Amino acid sequence: MALKHCWAFSRFALTPRRFCHHRACVSKMFQPAGVLPSGTKQSDMTCKSQRLMLEQGLIRQASPGVYHLLPLTLRALEKLIKVIDEEMHRIGGQKLNMPVITTGELWKETDRWNTIGPELFTLKDRHNVEYCLGPTHEEAVTHLVASQGIISHKQLPIKLYQITRKFRDERRPRFGLLRGREFYMKDMYTFDTDEEKASETYHSVCEAYSQIFNRLGLKFVKVVADTGLIGGTMSHEFHLPADTGEDELLFCLKCGYGANRETIHTDTPHCPQCGPGSQLDCKYGIEVGHAFFLGTKYSKVFNASYVANNGKTRLTEMGCFGLGVTRILAAAIEVCSTDNEVRWPQLLAPYQVYIIPPKKGSREEKAQPIAEQLYDSITTHIPNLRNEVLLDDRSHMTIGRRMKEARRLGYPCIVVVGRKALESEQLLEVCDVNTGETTYLNQEQLLAQMKDIITV
Prior knowledge:
The chain has 13 helices and 22 strands.
């Protein structure tokens, strides 16, 4: 009878078990955190992001350089992809999806089948035809565009991009998601009428990259880079400065010019703009993006041509632009986190709001319905937070222990429904994990504050 009185007050009432089913609850999440996977050695933890992501159940290693992305990480990854999509669409990018398996014939036409070396994953089918698992798709996309025949100049520029898994047979995979054999990458390929237009496109994509990092609140640098095996006549890299970075970056103290150390080959490096005697400062960075001005290197091989307004046939001028998507995620954790707690760019946090109800059997236990009602109020009245709230329903644990776990996972806003929620003002403890500030607000004040949370 008591149970009926508590839960059957309307025909829409739900049992506690059913009610939790409609909320995102920690007890239902697949998150093998707290201990390192069996067989993992501390010596294998070569950087902070790798250690934290393993300890907190964000990733699990499947084989050397290959990782399972667990649910919280995938939520963050999908948010990052949405940010990238928005900025690529803003500059006229068209999203497509090319096959991971690429015929070796295309790579042989550009001679990269032989020059790229053992990092290329290769295989043969039952008919003895050679293929590779694409680390990049210059050959495939240029062949795709060329196969349409000679197009009109009115159709240019064409800006095609994809966000897919890529493969590279790293000799020594390390640093978790920072240097693996399988990873997500955003790669864009552009086709323009001439060098001037291609240069405009090049700089517009670089600006879009800058906008992505600015939206994420990540400090980055853009430096002159080597064209390497991709080729072309101009190249720039985007880095997040970090002591764990593998790239040595040089910056002129006078003009601000920046370059990857590998592009400056003299014994006494100096700024190429300021000349001998100029002083260069050295920093280390994690490469998270790369841009290449390709010219006609690939369009010439595959005859990706167009008809100009004077009726003549010309080769398209190309560019290619990469973002290491899983690398950005790991690099952000590397530069934002403390030694023991994950910190995300706020836009990418798996959940924005984390609600901790009181412990079962405690003096504050009567505040449990307040926590559930708060969850429903946020998800009902703040549309952009509808899928951004997580309820820690593990009421057998103390508030302190659950707070510690929430901080370690870096949820930006932690709301504790404790003793003060039962007082006349019904105050909630609100912890801003990124600033360390704790405030006490009633529900109306909290909802008003949460309307300012930006999401994607």
